[in-house]
Write a structure and sequence with these properties.
This protein is α+β, with helices and mostly antiparallel strands. The protein has helices at 7-13, 37-51, 56-59, 80-95, 105-117, 119-125, 127-142, 235-238, 248-251, 276-284, 288-318, 324-349, 362-387, 404-413, 421-435, 438-449, 454-464, 467-478, 483-488; strands at 19-22, 25-26, 60-61, 70-71, 147-150, 172-176, 180-187, 198-201, 216-221, 227-231, 256-266, 270-273, 352-354, 357-359. The strands form 4 sheets. The protein has a 6-stranded mixed beta sheet, with no helix packed on it. It binds flavin-adenine dinucleotide.
């Protein structure tokens, strides 16, 4: 037996007969299909990275009572120091895709860590559901599962409540018996579901009384009978070559609509049952939401450093680095990356104990979330502004270099002071893939929405800010004078 999960283990686990559709066809094997295989390999590479002897300590730990090491994403930190150690592992994983795999396995592992820390919330919901959650945490962590989640309902008719949407649209409980529940309907947007082992199905959006059939959460293997994955367009399949699309050809984690066609879920995998408030509480009264989005900020901190480096390299490619206004722009961008790094440090330093576990500062996390979903498209815009036409004035594909006549013209026209024409084209293709390609554009949408639209994230920020202590300053100041006293003063 290997000491921890490897890439080969993961690839093998995905050959499980799951039902994935793309371009109207059923996919026989996601590890082989041209729409998915390279990103699946990138996912496997995460496990190979953790299994390397020199990375084992950084990336993994041995849970109590086990001889097998698992990824630190499953670690429930007991102190600030353990939280920082865990974060370093997550950052090292994110660096392997320069932050472009949003739903790497550590995202939903972080949700489960938060829910396991807040097990008391599930206990109030019922001892059997709490036991199911605790047992599932044990199973998922010990096996180092790659989990994705679907916790959002399809948009459909936004003016209607979730319970009033067309029949079979929003996933709901349609039956239950002694063995478990049966669910039917859809959830979005199962990012990374094609390469995950399991999916956590839940409801994060507010529900009202009468919508109890929608109020459940559970975990399912991706090959559960009746679970259908409807992939969006594959940017990986559309990638021209590694040279032309170095990111989309390897890190297109995929997003998919998940449709549950009468999927049976055994009780031991049902964590919330017909309780609308518990749907909220499982994320917000436990530290689950804080933990999963803290992970998202860890990953984003890596991506922003990468984007800053891209900006600097763009200025080198076109020779503008020493123009004062360009330097100013680069310094401004660097301040954004620095801010996110500082916010992460703040979430950790001002964390609090919850029982024996250490949890990140929630308001700092929501502050980062609100600011970064706004920041990301502005950073992308700044990179476009720095680059001008260089991102477009590029050979149609790597094959232009194979034509001697064209190669000669490319050598003449793609000159740069600090790089050869070949290096310049190679780099600018990377920059375009990151910010302008269909893959890059999806990333802007992702960073703006993965944690909820702005009205949702600002709502969390409003809810978690310490208004009382801030207002106390106003009260203290107002208490230093009054109307009667002022009028009594000599005019
Ligand atoms: C690339 C990508 C990957 C994703 N991956 C996942 C995943 O893996 N798992 C998962 O569960 N979800 C995933 N999501 C879904 C994501 O969580 C949602 O997109 C997000 O929560 C926003 O919900 P929505 O798309 O329904 O937009 P909406 O909530 O409908 O918001 C869209 C816009 O409508 C307006 N609007 C709607 N309602 C209101 C209101 N009440 N007040 C004011 N304005 C309003 C606003 O302009 C808002 O920006 C993903 C999304 C994207 C884009």
């Amino acid at each position: 037996m290997t000491i921890c999960k490897t890439g080969e283990d993961h690839l093998r686990s995905l050959k499980d007969g799951r039902t994935v559709y793309i371009d109207g066809k059923l996919v026989a094997d996601v590890t082989e299909h041209p729409a998915f295989r390279n990103c699946v390999k990138s996912a496997a590479a995460l496990y190979d990275f953790q299994a390397r002897p020199e990375n084992m300590e950084l990336m993994t730990f041995t849970p109590d009572g086990s001889s097998r090491r698992i990824n630190r994403a499953w670690q429930m930190p007991r102190s600030h120091q353990e939280m920082v150690e865990r974060r370093k592992a997550l950052q090292a994983w994110a660096a392997l895709s320069c932050g472009f795999i949003g739903r790497s396995p550590d995202h939903v592992a972080s949700t489960l860590v938060g829910q396991r820390i807040g097990l008391d919330v599930f206990q109030r919901h019922g001892p059997q559901r709490a036991q199911a959650l605790a047992d599932y945490f044990e199973e998922a962590s010990r096996n180092d599962y790659y989990l994705t989640y679907v916790i959002i309902n399809p948009q459909a008719e936004r003016a209607k409540d979730w319970g009033d949407q067309a029949e079979d649209l929003v996933a709901r409980i349609v039956d239950e018996d002694a063995a478990g529940i049966t669910i039917r309907g859809a959830k979005l947007l199962g990012t990374s579901s094609i390469m995950a082992n399991e999916v956590l199905v839940a409801n994060l959006q507010p529900l009202k009384a009468g919508e109890e059939a929608l109020a459940f959460s559970c975990a399912l293997p991706m090959n559960a009978r009746g679970l259908r994955v409807l992939s969006r367009k594959s940017y990986e399949a559309a990638a021209v070559s590694l040279f032309d699309n170095p990111l989309s050809s390897r890190f297109d984690e995929n997003d998919a609509l998940i449709y549950f066609e009468d999927v049976k879920v055994p009780w031991e995998r049902v964590f919330v049952h017909r309780d609308t408030d518990m749907c909220r509480a499982q994320f917000h009264d436990t530290p689950a939401h804080a933990y999963q989005n803290y992970q998202a900020q860890i990953r984003l901190s890596v991506k922003l450093r990468f984007l800053c480096a891209l900006a600097h390299r763009i200025s080198e490619a076109i020779g503008t680095t020493n123009i004062p206004s360009v330097r100013e722009q680069l310094g401004f961008l660097a301040a954004h990356a620095g801010t996110v790094g500082a916010m992460l440090a703040g979430m950790e330093a001002e964390g609090t104990m919850r029982g024996e576990w250490y949890v990140p500062n929630r308001h700092y996390m929501y502050s980062a979330q609100v600011l970064t979903q706004d920041m990301y498209p502005r950073i992308i815009n700044a990179l476009r502004e720095l680059a001008g036409g260089s991102l477009i004035m590029l050979p149609s594909s790597v094959w232009d270099f194979a034509n001697p006549q064209l190669a000669k013209i490319i050598q003449t026209t793609q000159r740069a002071a600090k790089m050869t024409p070949g290096e310049k084209v190679k780099f600018l293709k990377l920059a375009w893939d990151a910010i302008g390609s269909e893959f890059g554009s999806r990333h802007t949408q992702y960073e703006m929405f993965y944690a909820g639209a702005r009205f949702v994230t600002t709502g969390h920020s409003y809810r978690t800010f310490d208004w009382n202590s801030a207002s106390g300053m106003i009260d203290a100041l107002l208490a230093t004078y009054d109307l009667v006293g002022e009028l009594a003063k000599e005019h």
